Amino acid sequence: MDDLQHKINSLDKSRIPVHVAMIMDGNGRWAKQKGFVRSDGHAEGISTVHRVTQLSSDLGVRYLTLYAFSTENWNRPSDEVATLMYLIGWAIERELPELLRNNVRINLLGDIDRIPDDARQRLFYARQATAHCTGLQLNMCLSYSSRWEITEAARKLAAKAANGEIRPEEITEKMFSDNLTTAGIPDPDLLIRTGGEERISNYLLWQIAYSELYFTPVLWPDFSDSDYIDALIDFQNRERRFGMTSEQVQNNE
Ligand code: FPP
Q1: Which of 1, 72, 88, 166 is at a distance of 20 to 30 A from 126, taking alpha carbons?
Q2: Sign, Cα dihedral of 28, 32, 34, 38
Q3: Residue 234 — pLDDT band, cuts 50, 70, 90?
Q4: Strand order in 190-193's β-sheet?
Q5: pLDDT for 15
Q6: Where would I find the H helices in the chain?
Q7: DSSP character at residue 40
Q8: 23 Cβ inside 6 Å of ligand 1
């Protein structure tokens, strides 16, 4: 048995996280280290997206949420933005047959109207073509930022209050969650950030209130199946208390 299979076997299959979110950082540095241009790092990063999607699906993760392009990423040099948009559209089209074979459902989170026409059409097509799939749900965050999303939710609720549909004192956490782009999706159990930085960068701020955070120095294009399993093993060794005491958690189990 090879090392990877051995690691996979050591996972507790009854405690696979339902929802894994990822910040895919380090493409630019990976490219620079190799003497390539930054976009080559993004192209290589797509292979990692393919692998983590496959492994998540095989392990029974229900939701995989990837930070593919942030609101702030629009400020990058225009040629890098254009290449990333091209790559995203191209990758989703190329991967579609395999996503369908694996019963993976595509979902888009973010200000998708800002995505250039060509990539947006391919993304919409993939979302519609996989709408019937019941396996892994792959949430792609595009032109996404958490403050944007929270502001939008506040705006929607304020509009409902202004036209008398709801009263301000009736607003609950649940109602707020239901107005985020992640409505209906359980909060992430585990957030993985590659690339060595230990910050959240405006990602799922509301949703990660009780998520386990895992940071690895491995650059996204190098993030292997074995690195992913290491993160899952680390997750399984943690005790999630949700504000309770250790004794309370153990009594509840
Ligand atoms: C961060 O690395 C990565 C991004 C801004 C883009 C990530 C996008 C992909 C891997 C493609 C996604 C495609 C699909 C189909 C989901 P960075 O450029 O900030 O790296 P650096 O910190 O080393 O400069």
Answers
A1: 72
A2: positive
A3: very high
A4: 105-109, 137-144, 63-70, 19-23, 190-193, 212-215
A5: 95
A6: 3-9, 27-33, 38-59, 78-101, 117-129, 146-162, 173-177, 225-236, 246-252
A7: H
A8: no
48 alpha carbon – ligand 1 mean position (Å) = 11
Q: Which atom of ligand 1 is found nearest the CA of 45?
A: 10
Q: Using an 8 Å Cβ cutoff, are 70 and 59 in contact?
A: no
Amino acid letter, 224: S
What amino acid occupies position 167?
A: R
Please say if the pLDDT value at position 180 is more than 80: yes
pLDDT over 90 at 225, yes or no: yes
Query: Quick one: average pLDDT of 143-163?
Result: 98
User: Closest by alpha carbon to 228, among 107, 30, 84, 57?
Assistant: 57
State which amino acid sits at residue 161: A
| pLDDT for 247 | 83
Told to judge if 25 belongs to the known catalytic residues of this protein, a careful annotator would answer: yes
